[in-house]
Amino acid sequence: MNTKTKLIEKNGSSNPPPTSVWTRTFTSNSEWPDKEEFLDVIYWARQALGIVLGIFWGLIPLKGLIGLVLFAVINAGVIYFYFGSFQNVDEDEYGGAWELTKEGFMTSFAGFLVTWIIIYSGLYYEVDKFS
Amino acid sequence: MWADTLLIVFISICTALLGEGLTWLMVYRTEKYQKLKAEVEKQSKKLEKRKEIHGDSLDKQHKKKIEREEERLKNNNRDLSFVKMKSMFAIGFAFTALLSMFNSIFDGRVVARLPFLPLNWIQGLSHRNLPGEDFYDCSFIFLYILCTMSIRQNIQKLLGFAPSRAASKQGNSLFGPTPGQFK
């Protein structure tokens, strides 16, 4: 273990980071030598966020344009905060902040709408119908 | 309400898997496709790197090299699309038949209640074949399209069939309406 650490120190950044993607995802200022890997993390985080927000919006229940706008703001904001402040990546390496902000947005939006609609209609449709 | 919506999610998972399965049978597993895909990805990455390094330089030699590589990539991308086309047609036909079958099953049935009022131009889709003027009612086709949008791409990504970012980025810029492309 000791020699391994020393070797990494000696070779600097040319060596791949020894930690797994999961650990690096939740550790701030991690190193991402493979751009695709980081973009994948952003992509899947977005999908998870979309589904979680959809469930919340359905349970509350949030209705109307405000639900859509809030989703877009939170989704973009969280991801922006994640790569800008938490991971501190150089946006230009990925083609600018816009490229990162829109990575997987449409798929996440579709997933969000599906969960929001399903939970909302499942829980509140009958109530709405008769009220 | 739960039954209909969950059934639609299940249907779209099944059709996405079926679509990917058929494409794998007809395209992904063929040697020609794998070779072309690897080639396109390699070239896209190489081109991207080259553009990053020499992007702003006015050196004619570099420019010529980049242009030559772009041309080669364009040809490979075109070949790749031709290989995919065959299965696209087959899947297109199969899915049109399936969709019309599901459409007739869910005809006139409100499958869900929308928590928002869709935009005017979406109402035609979200209220398709539904009675009444209550645009909060959701038709089968709208929910199915949304499910497919999210599930299909995620399944493609999970199975590793989605095109790489570098390739699609280069592909987009190449297939855009560039002047003098067909000279």
- Computed CA radius of gyration of chain B, to the nearest angstrom: 22 Å
Order of helices and strands of chain B: HHHEHEHH
Low-confidence stretches of chain B: 173-183
Largest interface: A-B, 31 and 22 residues
Q: Tell me what portion of residues of chain A adopts beta-strand conformation.
A: under 5%
Overall number of domains of chain A: 1
Biggest sheet of chain B: strands side by side, in what order? 1-2
- Please give the share of residues in helix of chain A: over 70%
Largest sheet of chain B: 2 strands, antiparallel
Low-confidence stretches of chain A are: 1-14, 127-131
Specify the overall morphology of chain A: elongated
Plain-language structure description:
Chain B: Calcium-selective channel required to prevent calcium stores from overfilling. Chain B: Belongs to the TMCO1 family. The complex is a heterodimer of chains A (131) and B (183). By secondary structure, chain A is mainly alpha-helical. Chain A has one domain (32-123). Chain A has six helices and no strands. Chain A has helices at residues 2-11, 21-26, 35-59, 65-86, 97-102, 105-130. In chain A, helix 3 (35-59) packs antiparallel against helix 4 (65-86) and helix 3 (35-59) runs parallel beside helix 6 (105-130). The radius of gyration of chain A is 19 Å and the shape is elongated. Chain B is mainly α. Chain B is built from six helices and two strands. Chain B has a two-stranded antiparallel ribbon with strand order 1-2. In chain B, helix 1 packs across helix 5 (140-159) and helix 2 (31-54) packs across helix 3 (60-105). The longest helix of chain B has 46 residues, at 60-105. Chain B is elongated, with a radius of gyration of 22 Å. Residues 173-183 of chain B have low confidence and may be disordered. At the A-B interface, helix 3, helix 4 and helix 6 of A face helix 1, strand 1 and helix 5 of B.
